[in-house]
């Protein structure tokens, strides 16, 4: 008589609500027939998605990601979808800061030197005083902005349309020439695809750093490979196009390029925030109240 | 007739003040006999220090470091000494943040994976929500604190004596058990030497991170090697004892330990701040006004 599938055992569940743990790794739950509310396990794609078609009583799905492009087309008709907006903001912002610091302060050099047991000092770039163009100014962009300002960088935020204190994306060409660092935090949509191509990259000053923690499609990979291979630009990318990056792709080995395998959202700070949201949604479901973060109504 | 030695050519020098550039790398300046004010080149120890004894007209020395332990005993009698307090604060704070982010977000793992062309994802720790004990709460500690708070870490500052909002160093034993990350920003003095030894390290919770951007002597290296080798503690160190670290020292190869070769202070953000200070000191010297940051009077 399981009414709800939850991904973790250690949750506060309302008294009398029958739940079962399904973490996305083991067998499908036996009690699938009664499940009305399914909290999708995070980051175990694609197995939990297959279960969507095997839950005849399903009324609502809670995704723990902000982007729901993959789950949306798999939803049976009449099923409500809630997303995980905000759960990953801090984790992604923090990873962006890690990539920026690593690039500015030459961490790959020191890590190579450590592996070789070599003590050799060089002065590095700074983040302080750097002019940072933040392209994408939702929850993640704003969290990055707060951390950059605390580090005494000079921040210029850019969003899809201009508002007080925020530039519109249409002004991008006039902003790129004075950016020491450009950070992309954009979803994959028709208007963001290829946004930073050869022409935009060419407008950046020499030695500028391109950071991407949104979706890989926002940057023209071939154009970035050309500018980074020549040594004119640097890059630090958590997302790429294509992804996963094939083993023989030129990006892997370009000096001045740091790559991480799409791990910005998956850090410890996600869990307490996700658990708080799921507990609140269980309370609402149990009490018959409207769910939060509904992105598709039943 | 050179009255002042300056380390860089691109400075605003008061009209009529005879200056000569000595950057610490080439030959000693020929006009040493008339030099009254000597701005010591930064980070080119020991050559510029030898010059101190060859300047018979010397009245004042400007160091660009906050710590002047090495230069003080070399000063001829009657020579005033000014230090570079604050010039490196942002640079050091930023490097501390780089080390913390790199440790929490497993950057060495991703950099190794990149070198091997491997795409393999794992969730990591976060800095957000982490409880950070800042030991040393001068200009650098306060700059680190602002950046940690913006990253939504929980900061507990500790200084030599307690004041409102700041714990005293005598409370250290009661604070270590609840620190996920401990950051040391301490000078080398009789009271800081060996401050974090085997007993203190044993009080830290499992998996805690020890970060040192002050002086290596504050941590008992052998005790840290023991706790890190067992995998119980992690470390990220810009300063060590001994320094430079010998090529066969066990610290180099312990998993969970990141080492950088005392480079926290030497980044780009230092130069504009140092140049502004030197220009102000030249103006004061030329006008016969008292110099700033005097740490030893003539």
From TrEMBL, chains A, B:
CDD domains: 2-Hacid_dh_7
Domain named D-isomer specific 2-hydroxyacid dehydrogenase NAD-binding: residues: 97-264
Pfam families to which the protein is assigned, alphabetical: 2-Hacid_dh_C (PF02826)
Keyword tags: NAD, Oxidoreductase
SUPFAM superfamilies for the chain: Formate/glycerate dehydrogenase catalytic domain-like, NAD(P)-binding Rossmann-fold domains
PROSITE patterns, A to Z: D_2_HYDROXYACID_DH_2
Molecular function GO terms recorded: NAD binding; oxidoreductase activity, acting on the CH-OH group of donors, NAD or NADP as acceptor
Gene3D superfamilies to which the protein is assigned, alphabetical: NAD(P)-binding Rossmann-like Domain
PANTHER family, sorted: 2-HACID_DH_C DOMAIN-CONTAINING PROTEIN, D-ISOMER SPECIFIC 2-HYDROXYACID DEHYDROGENASE NAD-BINDING DOMAIN-CONTAINING PROTEIN
The protein's name: Phosphoglycerate dehydrogenase
Organism the protein comes from: Amycolatopsis xylanica
């Amino acid at each position: 008589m399981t009414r709800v599938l939850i991904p973790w055992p250690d949750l506060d569940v309302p008294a009398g609500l029958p739940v079962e743990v399904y973490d996305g790794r083991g067998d499908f739950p036996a009690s699938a027939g009664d499940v009305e509310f399914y909290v999708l396990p995070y980051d175990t794609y694609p197995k939990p998605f297959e279960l969507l078609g095997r839950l005849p009583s399903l009324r609502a799905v809670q995704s723990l990601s902000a982007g729901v492009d993959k789950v949306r087309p798999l939803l049976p008709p009449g099923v409500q979808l809630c997303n995980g907006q905000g759960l990953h903001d801090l984790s992604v912002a923090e990873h962006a800061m890690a990539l920026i610091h690593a690039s500015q302060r030459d961490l790959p050099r020191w890590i190579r030197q450590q592996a070789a047991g070599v003590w050799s000092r060089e002065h590095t770039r700074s983040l302080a005083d750097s002019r940072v163009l933040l392209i994408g100014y939702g929850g993640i962009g704003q969290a990055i902005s707060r951390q950059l300002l605390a580090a005494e960088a000079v921040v210029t935020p850019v969003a899809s349309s201009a508002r007080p204190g925020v530039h519109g994306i249409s002004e991008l060409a006039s902003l790129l020439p004075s950016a020491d660092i450009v950070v992309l935090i954009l979803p994959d949509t028709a208007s963001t695809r290829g946004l930073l191509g050869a022409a935009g990259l060419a407008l950046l000053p020499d030695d500028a750093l391109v950071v991407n923690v949104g979706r890989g499609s926002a940057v023209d990979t071939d154009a970035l490979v050309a500018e980074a291979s020549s040594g004119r630009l640097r890059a630090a990318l958590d997302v790429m196009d294509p992804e996963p990056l094939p083993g023989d792709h030129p990006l892997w080995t370009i000096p001045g390029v740091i790559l991480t395998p799409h791990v910005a959202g998956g850090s410890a700070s996600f869990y307490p925030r996700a658990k708080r949201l799921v507990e609140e949604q269980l309370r609402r479901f149990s009490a018959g109240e409207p769910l939060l973060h509904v992105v598709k109504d039943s």
